[in-house]
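name: query_chain
kind: protein
chains: 1
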Amino acid sequence: MNLDELQKHWQKFGEEDPLWAILAIPEMKNNNWDTEEFFRRGILEIAETINRIEAIGAKLNYGRALDFGCGVGRLTQALAARFDEAHGVDIAPSMIEAARKFNKFGDKCNYHLNKKDDLSLFPDNYFDFIYSVIVLQHMQPRYSLKYIQEFLRVLQPGGVLVFQLPSEPKLQSDQPDKRKIKPTRLMMRFKRPFHTIYQTIRHRLNPAPPSTFEPRMEMYGIPKDKLLAFLAQNKATVLDVQIDSWPGPSWNSYMYFVSSS
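structure:
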């Protein structure tokens, strides 16, 4: 789906069940998240991420931080507790509205609605730290790659960027090796000269009538070797790549720790 469609789906998630849409634990569906526990997990996640950054020997300045795909601010507020300023960006007005209601840090924590495929609302070299998890995986690679370029543009020289992206679906032991299967027209339809798109759609491809519209999430991956080549082309320094489990057991996924020159 394009960005307009993406916004439509996440706007609906934000209106109906925003916390579950961000952390989709099955038993928390239908607004069953405890708000304090939801935000507590954000605090723990940021603490763990900073520990990882220190463990790989990177230096982190605590000036401005960006939470890309902030949702209701689960991670933005955790960043605001550690940084001089924290900024959250999201495509859905409903998520930004909720984030502002949850905000406990006043002007130190700022939320921005962004409908564009860039981050032109921020100048070059603006952030010391940029963080994005379980966000880029829900958009087509033509958008996620553009945003990664923008992360590098708005990152301070020597700043740290941490983002997560799936690489490819895992091959189950009871399934044939798909690399040996002749591509079907459907498989070929999603091929791109620079990267391969792996798409999983929760609901039918046919759009529902407006009266019965149900939001859906799409999953995309960019193979790790292709993404590393892309980062090198954009003069980024890869500090580390770590396996992660955000997309669940069906995907190979990685956290990329990156610095700008």
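note: The chain has eight helices and nine strands.
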